[in-house]
Design a protein that fits this description.
Layout (H helix, E strand, L loop, with lengths): L9 E4 L3 H14 L4 E5 L14 E2 L9 H19 L11 E5 L2 H19 L2 E4 L23 E4 L2 H7 L9 E5 L3 E2 L2 H14 L3 E4 L1 E8 L2 E9 L2 E6 L3 E3 L5 H5 L9 E11 L11 E4 L9 H8 L15 E5 L7 E5 L7 E2 L12 H9 L17 E9 L6 E4 L5 E5 L5 H17 L8 H8 L7 H8 L8
Parallel strand pairs: 1-2, 1-13, 2-9, 4-15, 5-6, 13-21
Antiparallel strand pairs: 3-8, 4-7, 6-7, 10-11, 11-12, 14-17, 14-18, 14-19, 15-16, 16-17, 20-21
Helix pairs in contact: 1-5, 1-9, 2-9, 2-10
Length: 469
């Protein structure tokens, strides 16, 4: 029995947000008529639906590339939101970075000045309660007429006035403004619907090989409905998310990727501990969790839980989820990131301690959450993989055999980066310019070929902060 489809202009392996955004850019943006998405799961159901659905243009780094890529993505998101009556609920609540440590405060200030210089917008400094009267809080919904750049609070009284639910030890707050969140599922389905109307197709199946002749792609072998087949094509794109490393080997791509397991927990904040109007809030301090002597001894005695008695990395964060009567709060902390995987494992391993570990850490950010420790509320835990490069930048461009391309390594920022990344790769594949985009200024920063340069690999290891949350 032959495969359902035998020919396509482009075959994209992976129907997550990266693959869907690329299909949209090729069909709607460039008029490529036959684009085939191949995935053995429903669209947006492997990693894309595990996202906190947030976006930001706040990226430390040695150059402007990530800020430029994210600014372009946000431009596209805002354009699509306007064109669709904001079908996917884009807001601009911002990210709120907080610290209780004077040394971390100095680093936050350095990062803020660097981000501003790289194009994230101006800084507004508040050194007193009186100065902070000029602060404009985030609107609950929408994204128009919001400030850009960041508001930096350097005075505890000002912090208490505008963020009264934060821990009283917080000494510095940076409210970075051109960021927020959206419904990733609604965004993805909006793009997929438009792409389908322009000729894109979705095949339920698994890519099993990439056929090459004289080093050039000439077809993709698949299994669909248990039936093997081949799609004749001259262009193949690896947008396989956490499986990108393995899929890359099918097309002679040796991608420098690894994966980390990350989890999200949600609770119903019936005590009203978290401001429902806040942005995504990050405590930028490493933490050693408080345990009773008995609990600490029990945890330390087990090699699997000993890490919970040691210093945990910074970056614990939360945000409100939903509008109206919703009381849901999403919370995350990286207590598993040190566990690296060459090829991710599904289903992911569970962690029964994760909700309590997250809540204990969150108390240092929002003390009112301590009310839930005596009797843990009902929690919902979900998880996915951050598949990434050593310098936490994506791979966008030609890789492996001629006609093969990578769109991978988006770590935890695939949703926010996919629009501009897809635009960039579609322009490369069709050899057409990007109207209104500084493509030439950042394309090389994401080309997979950058890792062919040994000196680049050495420099990347010395970058320091790579924007990971």
């Amino acid at each position: 029995m032959p495969a359902p489809v035998s020919q396509a202009d482009v075959v994209i392996c992976g129907a997550g947000i990266a693959g869907i955004a690329l299909a949209h850019a090729l069909t709607v943006g460039h008029g490529v008529p036959r684009v085939m998405l191949v995935d053995d799961r429903a669209p947006l159901s492997l990693t894309s639906d595990k996202s906190t659905e947030a976006y930001r243009n706040w990226w430390p780094g040695p150059d402007q590339a990530m800020v430029q890529l994210m600014n372009r993505s946000i431009d596209l998101l805002e354009h699509w939101a306007d064109a669709s009556d904001n079908r996917f609920g884009l807001n601009r609540r911002g990210y709120v970075y907080a610290t209780t440590d004077a040394h971390t405060a100095q680093r936050l200030m350095r990062d803020a000045h660097l981000a501003s210089a790289q194009g994230a917008g101006p800084l507004r400094l508040y050194r007193s309660l009186a100065e902070s009267a000029a602060y404009v809080p985030s609107a609950h919904r929408g994204f128009h007429d919001h400030p850009d750049g960041a508001d930096v609070f350097l005075d505890r009284d000002a912090i208490r006035a505008h963020f009264p639910w934060l821990h009283p030890d917080v000494c510095t707050v940076v409210h970075a403004r051109r960021r927020g969140w959206m419904s990733g599922q609604q965004l993805g389905m909006h793009l997929l619907e438009e792409a389908r109307l322009a000729g894109a197709m979705v095949m339920s199946g698994r890519v099993t090989g990439v056929s090459c002749a004289r080093g050039e792609v000439e077809g993709v072998t698949i299994i669909s409905g248990g039936v093997p087949g081949e799609i004749c094509t001259r262009m193949f794109v690896n947008a396989a998310g956490p499986h990108a490393k393995a899929v890359g080997l099918l097309a002679d791509m040796a991608l420098p990727l690894f994966s980390e397991a990350h989890y999200t927990v949600s609770i119903e904040d019936t005590a009203g501990a978290i401001d429902r109007n806040t942005g995504l809030v990050i405590l930028d301090d490493p933490q050693q969790l408080e345990w009773s002597d008995e609990e600490r001894a029990e945890l330390a005695a087990d090699t699997e839980t000993r890490r919970l008695t040691e210093l945990l990395p910074a970056g614990i964060h939360l945000r409100p989820e939903g509008y109206g009567a919703s009381r849901t709060v999403l919370m995350l902390r990286d207590s598993h990131g040190a566990h690296r995987f060459g090829e991710p494992l599904f289903p992911m391993a569970g962690d029964p301690l994760y909700p309590e570990v997250v809540l204990r850490g969150m108390i240092r950010l929002a003390p009112a959450l301590a009310a839930y420790l005596e009797r843990l509320p009902a929690t919902w835990v979900d998880g996915g993989y951050y598949t990434k490069t050593s310098e936490n930048r994506p791979l966008i461009g030609a890789a492996g055999a001629r006609g093969a391309h990578a769109m991978a390594g988006f770590s935890g920022f695939g949703l926010m980066a996919a629009p501009a990344a897809a635009e960039l790769l579609a322009a490369e594949m069709t050899d057409r310019p990007i109207r209104g985009s500084p493509r030439a200024s950042y394309a090389a920063a994401f080309a997979p070929s950058r890792f062919d340069d040994a000196s680049y690999r050495e420099r990347a290891l010395a970058w320091g902060s790579v924007g990971q949350l």
